[in-house]
Amino acid sequence: MQSSIRKLQLSFHTLTLKLFIPPPRNISDELIKAIAANGGTIGVVGFPAFVSAERRPSIDQFIDHIVHISNLVGIEHVTLGIDYYGGQSPYTSDAEALEIYENLIACGMWSPAAYPAPPHHYPAGIETPRTMVELTKALLRRGFQPEDIRKIYGENLLRIYKTVWGE
User: Fold this and answer.
1) Which pairs with CB-CB distance under 8 Å and at least 24 residues apart come from 151-154?
2) How do residues 99-158 score in pLDDT, each as one tens digit?
3) Sign of the C-alpha dihedral, residues 76, 77, 82, 83?
4) What is the pTM for the complete model shown?
5) Where are the alpha helices (DSSP H) in 6-155?
6) Which of 3, 16, 80, 90 has its CA 20 to 30 A from that of 66?
């Protein structure tokens, strides 16, 4: 009897690039290439400290991560992992955000080395899910084609789901 083992295509979400900013959660080009070599995707995160050293990153700084991954391994390996959460601005006051942050640190879910203290302002233009249309406009301005944007917004993940779970 012959058996076969299928390599799983992995999808890594809520990651950004060490090239732009070196927090412990950001990944290297080598890891990106390894994920892509197996057909996987990288979900680009919007958490401010992972996008830029600036407290309020721009939408173009966020898109720089997408551009880099796309140039490195192809648009087929880029997805979104924005990682919005309830302690971000504008959903909570600074005091409430600090309380949430301190609880996440205390229970070990976050570390101060990876997550700076709030306020957490997501990239301008995509501060909340309601403003995500601005990402589409900015991607078009940066030269992305509509078919590439559809891949980033979900078609790349659907490809993996179909591979893993079947049609």
Assistant:
1) 151/75, 151/76, 151/78, 152/66, 152/75, 152/78, 152/79, 152/80, 153/79, 153/80, 154/79
2) 999 999 999 999 998 899 999 999 999 999 999 999 999 999 999 999 999 999 999 999
3) positive
4) 0.85
5) 29-37, 48-51, 59-73, 94-106, 133-141, 146-150
6) 90
Per-residue model confidence as pLDDT tens digits over 120-134: 999 999 999 999 999
Residue 48 tokens, joined:
């401010």
59-73 vs 133-141: helix crossing angle, rounded to 10: 60
Which two three-digit tokens encode residue 81?
């992992």
Token look-up 């299928």 returns 6
ω into 90 cis (within 30 of 0): yes
Cα 84 to chain center, whole Å?
A: 10
